[in-house]
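Assess this:
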Amino acid sequence: MLYENIQEAVEYITTITDFKPTYGIILGTGLAGLVDNMEIVETIEYEEIPHFLSPTVETHRGKLIFGHFGGQAVVVMAGRFHYYEGYSMKEVTFPVRVLKFLGIKRLIISNISGSTSPHIFPGDLVFINDHINLQPENPLRGINDDRLGPRFPEMLKTYDRAMNQVALDIAMEKGIRAHEGVYVALQGPNLETPAEYNYLHRIGGDVVGMSTVPEVIVARHMDLPIFVVSVVSNKCYPTENIESTTVEEIIAIATEAGVKMQLIIKELIGGEEGT
């Protein structure tokens, strides 16, 4: 049924546009500004696409946008789905499978996160090189369809470290604070307690958030190369330095720092050849 649903969504999209994207880009909370700097060819509302859902998070637009960015053909998810919204992991990750069948060659994922590292500060960018999954459900749970990927996908080389290095070099050249790091995924929607932040630091997490890992797992399942950039919106470690924050404040910081993220992605994909 999942495979058939994917095909129905793809068939509908291709009746609207024959645009052939090379990159898929998922925009996180507060990071939709990238769309404003695209050369847009076509926009499709999520609610029009068979088996797509509608985001309930206010800052997620709920649109699939085709066009050019950084000189490359891209399809952008302006708005993602989260497990905390009440959806299943298969529903959360369904759009990633659709992007794969639309022909993308690489997936770029963005998110906002809290820092659980003493060396990473609000406004910094973190290029993810590994993750720790503490979410309660896996999108691959259930009967496997070999047309989508293997039953037991390996996660050893999930993140594109070569692309990370290029991104780090671009950041250094542009004077942007950036790091590589480990992303920890929790269910949400509440922010974490000081004890939880301390725990996440101790187990090796550099940043924490409520998304991304399910999408990464599904992309890996389909052998889709992945680059993830996290925009740090608040500092959560050391715990004695944590200050009270609101989602509105987090989004404001992420929106400002998102300009740096756009610059990195534009330079990163603009410098790639043969794609």
About this structure: The chain has six helices and nine strands. The chain has one domain: 2-270. The first helix runs from residue 2 to 16.
